[in-house]
Amino acid sequence: MTLAAAIGYVVFGFAVGIYGTLVGAGGGFVIVPFLLLVRHARPEQAAGTSLAVVFLNALSGTVAYARQRRVDFASGIWFAAATVPGAVLGAYGARAFSGRAFDLVFGGLLLAVAAVLLWRPLPAAGAAAGTPARGRAWWPVERRLADAAGGVFRYRYDRVWGILLSFVVGYASSVLGVGGGIVHVPALVYQLGFPAHVATATSHFILAVTAGVGTLSHAALGHVFLLPAGLMGVGAVLGAPVGAHLSRNLHGGWIVRGLAVALAAVGIRLLAR
User: H or E element: which one contains 269?
Assistant: First the structure.
């Protein structure tokens, strides 16, 4: 690898770290297409290498968000634990995808999530009650979170739904290498009723656990490009605190819209390939 290529990986990781932390998605939705389209990696290699970078980004972002006191650790621990078995299974499932099938599944998922977010960036006032739109709440939980800036967030949700969703997210994130944030953030906001700022911060904590387990599983199977992952990881660690700082000055709706635009652009590119 040339010096210019190494610097390019670090700069790319820095940009991914900023944007991935800003929208709470970890950046895997950018890294995977980059590895597929530029590095011509196989799907399982793209997924494994991406998860390694997502782990470092999520870990750095979690520290920054924890300082802002926007991470709901009490809820995140339950959800993170539920992602672990799915992440391990997903590492093995990644080998079953052919290149074209991976593009179709990944691109279709990105477009579907982007469409939902653009159509309804945030729940209407009073709609974020936290219980599922249909059916009873099996394990209702009331939460109150006060951040370092003096903001107070109150919400309630059904923990059973959160655990079930997290297991599915853990599997999908490991198969696709996206860390799960592109699904987890909308799920936390719409299905469980988390405020957008709390959802992005808590998602990063969950990402750190999910991506860490997924990375170890993929590494054991030889799916991780160690040098590119390390270089992008250095950039992501430096960029994550910047993204966390920028998120404090943005309205929650713009954070969700920014995620939607990025997802749509990448989804279209993959399907066009």
Answer: helix 252-272
